[in-house]
Specification:
Helix content is about 35%, strand content about 15%. The chain is α/β, with parallel strands linked by helices. The strands form two sheets. Strands 1-9-8-7-2-5-6 form a seven-stranded parallel β-sheet, sandwiched between helices. The chain has a two-stranded antiparallel ribbon with strand order 3-4. Strand 3 and strand 4 form a beta hairpin. Helix 2 packs parallel to helix 6 and helix 4 packs parallel to helix 5. The relative contact order is 0.23. The model has no long low-confidence stretch (mean pLDDT about 90).
Length: about 180
C-alpha cells in the first residue's frame, strides 16, 4: 500500500504522521496494553451509522468492556444516559484536549494521567487540531477511530469505505469483549 493521505487535503500535518491501522487487532493490543486509556466521543457519534447501530453504541460497548473513562463532548452526554451508560463525563472537546496535555492533571477519577486516548465522532477539522495539539504538547498516544485518516494521531484508520470501517470497529469491539 502507498502512503496514506489526509482526507482534508489543504492541511499539512508535518513530517510525523499517524501510522495507518491496517489490522484492527493493533487497536485491540494497544488498548489492552494501556495502563490508563480514555475515550473522547464527539456529537457526530449519534448521527453516524455503523454495523449494529450508531457509533455511540460502539463507544459504549468498548467502554463497558474495558472500563475506560469516557468524555462526551457537546450535548451527547444525555445520549449516553439514554443508552444506559451514566458514566460519561461532559466536557467541551477543546477543554479535554488541554487537560490531556497537562502533566499535572490527575484525570477524571483523580488517579493520574492517561497514556492512551481513543477519539471518535468529533468533526474532522476539530479533531485535526486537537490531535495536532496532543502530538506536539503531550506524551499521550492517540488513536482516531473515525473513518477518515487523521495524520496528527499516533494511529488512525486510512480513508475507509463505510462498510470496511463498520467491520473494523465491530472487530475491535468484539475483541475487547464488547457486543
Amino acid at each position: 500500500m502507498g502512503m496514506v493521505e489526509s482526507w482534508q487535503k489543504a492541511e499539512i500535518a508535518g513530517p510525523k504522521k499517524a501510522f495507518a491501522i491496517m489490522k484492527p487487532e493493533v487497536v485491540v493490543a494497544m488498548v489492552k496494553r494501556a495502563k490508563r486509556p480514555i475515550m473522547v466521543v464527539g456529537h457526530e457519534a449519534i448521527g453516524v451509522d455503523v454495523e449494529g447501530g450508531k457509533l455511540i453504541d460502539q463507544a459504549i460497548s468498548i467502554a463497558k468492556a474495558t472500563g475506560m473513562g469516557v468524555v462526551a463532548t457537546a450535548h451527547i452526554v444525555g445520549e449516553f444516559v439514554k443508552r444506559g451508560f451514566p458514566n460519561a463525563v461532559l466536557m467541551p472537546a477543546l477543554d479535554i484536549a488541554k487537560r490531556l496535555e497537562d502533566p499535572e492533571w490527575k484525570g477524571l477519577d483523580g488517579m493520574g494521567q492517561y497514556d492512551l486516548a481513543l477519539v471518535m465522532g468529533i468533526p474532522y477539522y476539530m479533531e485535526w487540531v486537537i490531535l495536532s495539539s496532543l502530538k506536539h504538547f503531550s506524551n499521550i498516544k492517540t488513536i482516531s477511530l473515525d473513518r477518515y485518516y487523521q495524520p496528527n494521531a499516533t494511529w488512525s484508520f486510512p480513508n475507509l469505505s463505510s462498510k470496511d470501517w463498520s467491520e473494523d470497529l465491530k472487530l475491535i469491539t468484539n475483541n475487547l469483549g464488547g457486543k
